[in-house]
Every structure is written in structure tokens, then in C-alpha cells.
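User: Hey, quick favor. My workstation is busy. Could you predict this chain's structure for me?
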Amino acid sequence: MLFSWLPACFLVGAVLAREITFPPVAGIQHPIVGYGVDQDTASLDISQLMSGIATYANLPYVHCLANDGEEVEKYDIAVMGAPFDTGVTARPGARFGPNGIRQGSRRMAPAFSWSVYTGKNVFLEGFKVVDCGDAPLTFLDNTVALKQLDKAHKVVSARTANNTEYSTPRIITLGGDHTTTLSALRGTYDHWGAVSVIHFDSHLDTWDPDVLGGGLSHYAGVNHGTFLHIAHEEGLIKNTSIHAGIRAPVSNPKYDLKHDKACGFNIITARELDKTGTQGIIDKLKERVAGSKVYISVDIDVLDPSYAPATGTAEVGGWTTRELLTILDGLEGIELIGADVVEVAPIYDNPGETTVLAAAEVAHSLIGLMVEKPVKSHG
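Assistant: No problem, here it is.
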């Protein structure tokens, strides 16, 4: 009995004597489940938890907006934040959306993203996915901020992709209010021309700037409810576009709906899902955009506020997170050339981070669609 304590003592000594080591890249966030520095050789290490600077899904950070002449690591799909919320007509706060979505993605990592539904890992399918950080946008002048975002999209998409066969990188934008989609569509037009837009939202967002903006000024007329009208005016989108999840009221039932159709859109209301199920929605969306390049924009308020309370203009009666993800994943095979998830305002989220978790998974699905169907630009 006298020496029964010795084994335990030696064990404690061995633990205390272990060499302290740091991960290969210090100061970079590591996911809750582990980390991997290289997407191709990512390995799990559960000792690294909740530390470092956040990137989306623990992807490598690349300074995609480096000055001319600076060497930039090549990539195929770029995640870029657009911290802008001064185009809202309701609650502000979406300028913090990009970092909120990254926070919601902390449990995700290239080494731990094998789908139980498909058996695939979208981060390890041969296309390099990176986080470019946020576009630097002023919050003092909307006109200047959108010019900055226009340029950011042009710079990021103009890099030569890592994949030699598909030379133009594609961008997933983390918003930011919905005005930011206008800059993204201007950027995609340079490489793919006019596109069909699949617009997941509770609102139409095709309002005439003279109606939603009051005709006060050009500045006031460019906002998160008019950007699709402006995109149509600029010839960025085709007349084969479609809304999904619509349920918010309109100001003038005859004019607003007629004007929306003139902007090139059909409408799938939120309650239509109750009649057709998710497969019915998928079929309608695919039929509408068949044969064209596609841009998907997901306003997080397409979800019911019980699933996504952290948004600027919440509307009750929306879809569940599972329903939205099922619909997105069902769109496999479309030629997706760009996408975004917007209107995430973390200040209105609950302690469980319901909204940012949902937005992070939406971005994951959008990346999956891009990986599943590579698309060549027109030059």
C-alpha cells in the first residue's frame, strides 16, 4: 500500500513533461472538430478547438484583392464578404453578416465535410475553394461603396483559376444587404453574359426605384428592394428568371406584379411548397432556367423567422431550413456561375446562432452546386 501511488505519480509526471507544440499555421482559426492546413492532406486533430481568426469553413485565406504585380495564390471558387447594409428599408445590421456566417461555419472544415446524403466532400473534389476575406466598403456613401464592390468582383473573378480547363473563378458572396447582388451580377456579366436568376426571398425586389425610393434621388432608388429592377435595366439578367418563397405583401397588386413580370420573373410562392412538396419546387425552378447560365441569390428571409430571426425584414410563413437545403441540393446539374447568401444581421440572432448556422449551410450547398457542375466562361 505504501507505493500504490507511484504509477499515478509517474503518469502525472509524464503528462507534465510532454513537449508543447503549436499548429503549423498559428493565428488561423481551427474548427471545432479539428483542422487541416492543406485541403488535399487535411487531417483531424481534436486538440485544436475554437481558436484563431475565422475563415468560412476553415478554408485557406487568400488575399484575392492584392495590388497589380503581387503574386496571388490561384483558386477556383472564392468566398468573399460584402459588409454593406445602408441600402435597407428596415432593420440594419447585415454589414456584420459575413463575419456572422463565418462564425456559423466554425464546425465545418475540408477534412470533415463528407455528406451522408451523397458520400461526397465538395471541398475535396478537385476545385480549390478559398476565403478572400471582405471587400473594403465605405458605409458613408452608398454610391462609392457599390463602386468598390463592383471593382472587388471584377478583380476576384479576373484572376486565372487554379483549374486549367475552367479558367474563370466563380464567387460566393456573403452579404451584406441584398443590394450587393447587383455588383455580383455586373461581375458575372463580364464572363458569362446575361444570366437567369433564381431568387430565394420573401420579397420581390423588382420594385421600381421611383416607388421604393420615392423618386427622391438616384442614390435613394438603389436599394435592397430595387436591385433586380436595375439589373434588368442594365441587361444583366434574362427573362427566364424566377422567385422562390415569395410571401410578403406588395404595395400595388396590379402594378407590382405586372412590373415584376416585365423584369423577367415568374413567382413561386412560399405556400406552393405545401401543395407540390420540395420536388415540385425543384422541377419548376429547373424548367424555368433550363439551357441558361444561372445565378442563385438566397435572401435568408426566405426562411421562416423561427429558423432565421436574424434578418432585416422578417416575414412569417416561410420555409424550414431543411426544405430550403433540399431544394438547393436538388438543383444539381444547373450551370451555376455565381451565388450569394445575404441579409444576415447577426445582432437579431438568438444565443443558439440559428440564423448564421443556417446561412453557413446554405453557402455550403451553393459551393456544392458549383463543384458538381463546372462552367466555362465565354472568354
